[in-house]
## 1
Amino acid sequence: MHEEHGISIWFFIGSLLVIYGLIIVIASLPALFSPAANPHIVLAHLHAGLWWGALMLLLGIFYVVMYWPAKKHERPS
């Protein structure tokens, strides 16, 4: 019997995480090189957007690599 396998939803979720992570990292870069425009932002010096974007990017890359559709071996459910 021939079984058809579709593309895993986790591959698409990983792709979205990569795209959103890149957008957030790119949008956060200007704040890294210039002082805060609004001095009332608490903890702006921690650059949370940059960290959050990098985390999303790494997690997305992990999911894209793990669930790449061209792999021939069995994937975990």
## 2
Amino acid sequence: MNYQIRKAKISDLDQLLNLIVELAVYEKEPDAVEITVDDLKASGFGTAPDFVCFVADMDTQIIGIALTYTRFSTWKGRVLHLEDLIVSKSMRGKGIGSALLDKVVMHAAALGVKRVCWEVLDWNASAIEFYKAKGADVKRDWNVVHLDQNGIKKYISKLQP
């Protein structure tokens, strides 16, 4: 099987969005994806991109992605966040996820960050085992905290006199 790992291009965005939707379905949230191709283009391909995305490309078919961005840790300094590592269901188990993660880690080293971090659902045993096998420390004592758009509005409304 011949595929290459490379940075995403604007022409990849339709397929990239399809993989994002595929992940949402897998994670039992099929209606949660709000982002559009235009959003991805504006956020990832302007003069100051919000993210860097690597793709696994097999004959112009995008079969996997790894979307990353930098953030700042008060304890460590600059870190790289892996937002999503997605391999199309039909292509899992063929080394594509490993190749994408390898690229992310090499990218992190080139950036000189202190850490690479990401989340994994507690019920996704195969992903947890994959990450552990790669040497990742899966922290079971941390909870992910989100304040969604409605939560932000409610929060702010309570600040108003």
